[in-house]
Every structure is written in structure tokens, then in C-alpha cells.
Amino acid sequence: MRPLCIDLDGTLIASDVLEESLLLYLHDSPFHAIPILSWFLKGRPFLKKRLGQKVNLDPKKLPYHEHFLAFLRQERASGRPLYLVTASDERPAEEIARHLDLFDGVMASDGVTNLRAHAKADALVARFGEKGFDYAGNSAHDLPVWEKCEEAIAVETPAGVLEQLKTFQPNAVIMTEEKTATSWLAFLTPAQFVVALFTFLFYICPFFVKERPSLLTCTLALVCLGAFSNLAVLGADLVTMRSMPMNPLRRRRFLFAIGVFDLPMAFKVLGGLFALYVLASLFLPIAFSLWVLVIGGALFWHECQDDPHPMEVSAPHAAIDAGLIFARAVGGLMLI
Asked: Packing angle between helix 286-304 and helix 215-240, nearest 10 degrees?
């Protein structure tokens, strides 16, 4: 019976170990961004190795593709050899393998070799021979491996990648689970744009100022503040999704945790929100743009705090919320 080799990121789990590790490490301290950058400059394998040493990733909290996991358990019960083969670092890969207790062996990145794409294909051919193994993957990086395997299994794979796969593996097994489609709009918090309307306070009520700001200036301020506030809230959801108990009021954090929302899309939205903030800031007073950074930092800190009674409105949380609303109104003064 041919061994089945299984990819980890995006295949076995609906997430990415590197991204999960980055978020957990940044949650411990935002200043960890400095060593992360230095490790990245030394290459992805080195970055993965260092994060694997620094971060204790809990395999029980990862979002597994349950329909695929059930299939693997059936294959294991039939006596088929299973191997976890991943570009993630060997330490978290081995911990996940021990937790699931399904695999006969683990092949992973070791700090020098990034076991992805052609490097993974070469390693598997060296161990099992060409066409001597079956392979389950999910992305374009798996195409070189699928070319070398006997039977290809595609798990939650994008349509474009499936088209390329079928050119040389027409009988590939497609495994997918229907999900509710989500767009980038699902990552936004509309309430943050609503409270940003306080920047219009001195446009609507100019009684306390000699000259009110223009409508265009207030609109740009709304975009600037709303974008950065959304960035702060989304960032807080990301860095706390594994380290905090599930808050029933934070539906998005829950959906991140179970893998319905994918992290790559979340990072693209973060980049888009930051670009929107920078673009709007170019046409606004520098004092207002810096004040938005202060508000965003305070909002991020506030959202990262664990509320022991999430279904109740506590006095400290209400006071902080009121303070943040007042800070937005103060920002309106800087537009004059």
C-alpha cells in the first residue's frame, strides 16, 4: 500500500503555522516585530526555526479540516502509512503529529531547508521514489509534488490551482467542504466608521470655533480615522484569537479561530486599511494623523484585554469606550 503524504498548512489545518506563530509572538509584545524582521532577513527557514523555538503553539486550538481529518483516520485504520510533510518548522509539526497520533513519520523544514514546492518534491522522491507515494495538498506550491506522486488529493484548493492540477493529474481526488462565502467586507467593523463621525462635530456645530473645517476635510478625516480604527480592531482579533477565551460577542474572533476566515485575506485587508489611512493622511493636518495613531494604539490595547464577563457591560470598559469617543471628538479640533 502506497504511503499517503499530507501537507499541513491549508490542507490538514485551515490556517498556516508560520502566521499563527507570528501572531502569538506579537501578542506577547509588539516589540517582537524587531527580532522577527532580523530573522526574516536571514531567510524563511531561519524565521520558522526561531519562531518554533520561541512560540508554544497549542495543537488542540488549531482549526483542522475535520472532513479531511476523518478521511485520514479511515486510511489509518485500514493500515495505510501516513506521513506529515510540511514547510513548517519541525518542532510544531512534530507536536501536531503527536497530538493527532496518526502519522508514521514527519518531514519538515529544519532551519536550513524550506521544505516547499520543488524541495518537498525532491525529498519525497528521494525517500519513496517517483510515483511511489500519494500526496494531499492545497496550493500552487504543491504542484511540483503532485507531478511526482501517483495519486493526487486536493483539499480546499482554489479553482485556478485545480485547473493546473488536472492537466497532469486528471483523476485527482477533490475534497472540499462548502462554506459561506466571505468577502473583505466581513473583516470590517462598521461601528468604527460610525463613531468616527465625531470628526464632523465642529462642522455640524461650529458655535465653539471661529472657522469650521470643510466638508471634504471632515470626510477625509472620517476615512482616515475609520480605516485605522478598523485596522486596530482587526489586528486585536488576530493576535488574541488563540490566546484568549472565546468571547460570544466577538463573532469574527471566533470565526478566525475555527478557520472560516482565512489569515492571508485578513493580512491583505490590514494592508489595505493601512494604505487607506496613509492616503487620507496626506491631505490632513499632521497633528490629526498622529492623533489617529494614538487613538488606534489605545483601541488596540483595549480590544486585546480579556473581559472576564463578556456578556456584561463593566464600568471600566464603559469608561474606556467613552474616553475613546471623546478622543475622536478632540481630533475634530485638529482639523481646524
From this structure: 30
Last residue of a domain, one of 149, 175, 201: 175
* Number of domains the chain contains: 2
Q: Which domain holds residue 303?
A: 184-333
* Domain edge (last residue) among 131, 154, 175: 175
Residue-wise pLDDT for 68-108, tens only, equals 999 999 999 999 999 999 999 999 999 999 999 999 999 99
192 and 159 housed in the same domain: no
Residues facing residue 23 across a β-bridge: none
Evaluated on CA atoms 271, 56, 28, 31, the torsion sign reads negative
| Regions of the chain where pLDDT drops below 50 | 180-181, 207, 311
Cα R_g (the chain), whole angstroms: 24
- Return the C-alpha cell found at 74: 479511515
CATH of the domain at 276: 1.10.357
- Joined grid coordinates for residue 23: 501572531
Q: Which amino acid is at 21?
A: S
pLDDT digits (tens, 9 = 90+) for 234-276: 888 887 776 655 555 555 555 565 555 667 778 888 999 999 9
Same domain assignment for residues 237 and 143: no
Query: Residue 6 — φ and ψ, nearest 5°?
Result: -120, 130
| % the chain with pLDDT above 70 | 83
Give the integer Cα–Cα distance in Å for 164 and 137. 13
Put residue 211 in one of left, alpha, beta given phi > 0 → left and psi -120 to 50 → alpha.
beta
